[in-house]
Design a protein that fits this description.
It is built from 18 helices and 23 strands. By secondary structure, the chain is an alpha/beta fold.
Length: about 525
């Protein structure tokens, strides 16, 4: 997030898109609802489903799946055409505005309506509301990123924020809501294949030399690594022989699961390090039991870039170890003495090699976390990014055209499927589906379908139906709901026994290599 969670309440207008915030980020959603209810903020929700947050919204735009670039360009067309853009910000803080202006010229409200299904007047009203705000905040989540055009979608939202001067100010910003509790921290410390800690490029010789000196090694590779979405098909083809998986359950969460299962079966060796015997762990040659969050010390970095202490509350069961200890012991046996006494020593190393973490110490975050970048110990941290300039200097407008989703409906597969989460379960259910009360609230998977589509395809509420795509089939219970939009069904992905990802498309965004979980073509039939 460029801004903080609390800062959402300083916004005049809040644009939420690709985020079922009340169910996926229920605590954060309370800030949005308070801003609307008590501080007179205007709320604009853009979502194909009638999520709970729409009840608080001044405007709810309901786009067809995979048309985000089109409606964002449509908003920018109206803002420029009506002279509502922030000329001073554009002149002083950005480049390449003319290219953007030229691109969005064709995205008239009527043209956008044809692509997105959003009425033209709604595009106009939403654009005016956002552009006229003193401070406009954009919140988005995986409904924006999990597309073959996910990178384009994110860049388009950045375009919209820059066009209206809504970056570097309280109550503004472009704010991705992270899908898991420490995914921001994992990325910060090098959990990506093309960077070391603090997003320092693997391809930069000076960076590699710094890391070699810090770790006492030579010859670090100058080549970028592979994303997991590239590695799984390589296992299928025999080009990768072994996986070591920590805290992930890809045999529920990966797209096109039938293909993923064949890929894992083709491995020579599989190691899984986790807190429970997940579906993936059950396929492993070796399972390494690790401690959960409440059984260890350390830090988490949350969605607003706040680095926070985590303290051990209870002892881990049996022979479970901290993840860092397991990894260190494996490294030692492979010939590299990765000798740490505790997690504090590891954090001290992180801050020494990571410029954005350099000023953060355990003492400074004893009671309250700090936002990176925090380059020195006398620095207060940075709650709001880009207040004076962007990291590269001036922000770049990207002229982005609309590209349709990778898979379209046809006579055989006439409906679109989108996937997501429900309030009571988390990710692949590794923890929540072992919790009695949560299972009472959400015991099984379902397919959410509109009344119009239910009638059209002869589906009765609570009936058991088959849902099939070009990749697989599952059997689930039908849930006729006014949250669903005609032409599109929704299935949560938590339930391994009816895994939505047996259906989803493994087509990737060419930049991020994230799969298109949010759009694929399916058909329905009555179950025997």
């Amino acid at each position: 997030m460029t801004n903080t969670i609390g800062d959402v309440e300083e916004a005049d207008v809040i644009l939420v898109t690709g985020s079922n915030t009340t169910e996926n980020h229920p605590v954060l959603s309370s800030f949005v609802k308070r801003a609307v209810k008590y501080k007179n903020a205007k709320l604009l929700v853009v979502d194909p489903r009638q999520i709970k947050l729409t009840k608080f919204a001044d405007h709810w735009l309901r786009p067809n799946l995979g048309t985000d670039v089109a409606w964002i360009n449509g908003l920018m067309h109206v803002i420029i055409a009506e002279n509502l853009h922030d000329k001073a910000f554009i002149e002083s803080r950005t480049t390449d505005f003319e290219g953007l202006k030229s691109m969005v010229e064709k995205f008239t409200p009527d043209y956008v309506a044809q692509i997105t299904g959003i009425p033209a007047q709604q595009i106009i009203d939403a654009a005016r509301m956002y552009a006229k705000a003193r401070a406009g905040a954009i919140l988005y989540c995986m409904g924006i990123t999990q597309h073959t055009t996910g990178t384009d979608n994110v860049k388009s939202l950045a375009n919209l924020a820059m066009l209206s001067g809504n970056l570097g100010i309280p109550g503004g910003g472009v704010n991705p809501l992270r899908g898991q509790n420490n995914v921001q921290g994992a990325c910060d410390v090098g959990g990506l294949p093309n960077v070391y800690t603090g997003y320092q490029p693997v391809t930069d010789e000076a960076v590699r030399k710094k890391m070699e000196d810090a770790w006492g090694v030579t010859g670090l590779s100058e080549k970028n690594g592979l994303t997991v979405t590239k590695m799984v098909p390589m296992a299928h083809d025999g080009d990768i022989k072994a996986f070591y998986i920590i805290g992930e359950n890809p045999l529920v969460s990966d797209p096109d699961l039938n293909h993923a299962e064949k890929s894992f079966a083709n491995l020579d060796f599989l190691v899984v390090q986790d807190i429970f015997m997940t579906e993936t762990a059950q396929m492993a040659d070796v399972v390494l039991p690790s401690a959960c969050f409440a059984e260890k010390d350390g830090t988490f970095t949350n969605t607003e870039r706040r680095v926070q202490r985590v303290r051990k509350a209870v002892d881990a069961p049996g022979g479970a170890w901290d993840d860092w200890k397991i990894t260190s012991e494996i490294a030692k046996r492979m010939g590299y003495p990765m000798a740490y006494k505790n997690c504090r020593e590891i954090f001290d190393e992180i801050r020494k090699v990571t410029p954005s973490y350099a000023g953060i110490t355990y003492e400074r975050i004893e009671r309250e976390g700090l936002h990176w970048p925090c380059p020195s110990q006398d620095h207060p941290g940075t709650p709001i990014l880009h207040t004076q300039q962007f990291t590269r200097g001036k922000g770049v407008f990207h002229a982005i055209d609309y590209i349709a989703p990778a898979e379209k409906v046809d006579d055989e597969y006439p409906l679109y499927l989108t996937t997501g989460r429900v309030l009571y379960h988390y990710h692949t259910g590794t923890m929540t589906r072992r919790t009695e009360g949560l299972n009472e609230r959400a015991p099984e998977s379902f397919v959410e379908i509109s009344a119009e589509d239910a009638k059209k395809f002869g589906i009765e509420d609570e009936s058991t139906i088959n849902v099939a795509s070009r990749r697989g089939q599952i059997t689930v219970r039908a849930k006729v709901s006014d949250q669903a939009v005609s032409g599109t069904v929704f299935i949560p992905f938590h339930f391994a026994e009816a895994a939505a990802n047996k259906l989803t498309n493994a087509a990737l965004d060419p930049v991020s290599n994230i799969p298109e979980y949010k759009v694929c073509a399916i058909k329905l039939s009555s179950a025997a």
